[in-house]
Amino acid sequence: MTALPLSLILLTSCTQPAERGSFESLSIASGTTGGVYYPIAGAISQIVGSEIEGVGATPEATAASVENLRLLGAGASELAVVQGDSAYQADSGEGEFAEKPVENRALLVLYPNVYHNVSLRSIDDRLDLDCFSDVKGHRFSVGAPGSGNELTTSLVFADLGMDFDDIDVQRYAYAETARALREGQLDAGSWVVGEGHGSLRELEATDPLHLIPLCGDEVDAVVEDHPFYTSHIIEGGTYSTVSDDVRTVAVWNILTVRPEFPDKLAYRMVKAVYENADAVNRVYQPGTEYLVPESLRKSPVPLHPGALRYAEEAGVDIPLKLRG
Q1: Which residues make Cβ contacts (< 8 Å) with residue 257, sequence separation at least 6?
Q2: Which residues make Cβ contacts (< 8 Å) with residue 5, sequence separation at least 6?
Q3: Which of 224, 286, 222 is nearest to 253 (CA)?
Q4: Which superfamily does CATH assign the domain made up of 113-251 to?
Q5: CB neighbours of 15 closer than 8 A, spacing ≥ 6?
Q6: Which of 159, 177, 183, 282 could join 172 via S-S bond, C-beta 3.0 to 4.6 A?
Q7: What digits encode the pLDDT tens for the residues 125-178?
Q8: What is the pLDDT of residues 72-97, one digit of tens each?
Q9: Each residue of 255-312: pLDDT tens digit?
Q10: How far is Cα 4 from Cα 1, in angstroms, rounded to an integer?
């Protein structure tokens, strides 16, 4: 499915209130068709269509998190798969959303995205990229414009006292970043993805990877500044060409909605997905251990009342700060 340009969607969304207000035909803003968000949204759409009578859902291909939240705020989509940092900033009116917050509530907590700073072994042999700050002065892809990848990278840079003026900045999607690394047009780039992402496995099939670590003080700076990031280790062997553990940070992905999304429908959707989690796990197997009710405790934004009801029925103790 080809995504409409954001500007066109925003202009036309005001002409669709009757359809959108009915909550019978749900749009799930996801990501690019080559990423993980899109097939996850597709699996959730299939569950909704088969398990909830009178309700259909469709995954929409987009530039991912930041655009998804803007679509949610504009009423062009009812649900959005997003990174937790984007959801937190939208709900709090910070960063990209300082001028136009998007209040949102979590339905599902999916899996953690891990911040990968990716170069090639051949490039590291020449540049000695031992810690993240070593990318200063080099050609670096921060992610596609409007993506959660770009947002995360900008926050990490800021936490380390850097900005995009410190690098020869490029804004490529993952496939373009991989190609540019192979062709010698980049020195490094960021991937904010689940471990073992297919595009990284494809890249290392032809070129051994070098994952640039966040050194100890760098991790501490990021985690202390932002409650939605956690310290994370990419264990050696996760990628066949990277034998050592690599220290970095991670952020959870969620399925989020506006607060006014109907409570009963939200509850039915959450229940249906957890009872049919195998359908989601088949399209993204690394997320299997995380797609459980207990992960709702990890949400970066308060839970929607429908999700909170399900969590309580499942015996999950939800912190007060996530109760809305």
Answers
A1: 72, 78, 79, 80, 104, 105, 107, 266, 304
A2: none
A3: 286
A4: Periplasmic binding protein-like II (3.40.190.10)
A5: none
A6: 177
A7: 999 999 999 999 999 999 998 788 998 999 999 999 999 999 999 999 999 999
A8: 999 999 999 999 999 999 999 998 89
A9: 999 999 999 999 999 999 999 999 999 999 989 999 999 999 999 999 999 999 999 9
A10: 10
Here the tokens at position 190 are 């960021």
Specify whether the CB–CB gap between 197 and 167 falls below 8 A: no
Beta-bridge mates of residue 59:
28
H helices of the chain, where? 6-13, 17-22, 37-51, 65-74, 84-92, 121-127, 148-159, 174-182, 198-204, 216-225, 263-275, 277-283, 305-313
Question: Strand 209-211 and strand 79-83: pairing?
Answer: unpaired
Q: Which CATH architecture has domain 25-111+253-322?
A: 3-Layer(aba) Sandwich (3.40)
As a whole number of angstroms, the distance between CA 52 and CA 59 comes to 16
Residues of the chain with CATH 3.40.190.10: 25-111+253-322, 113-251
**pLDDT bracket for residue 22 (50, 70, 90):** low
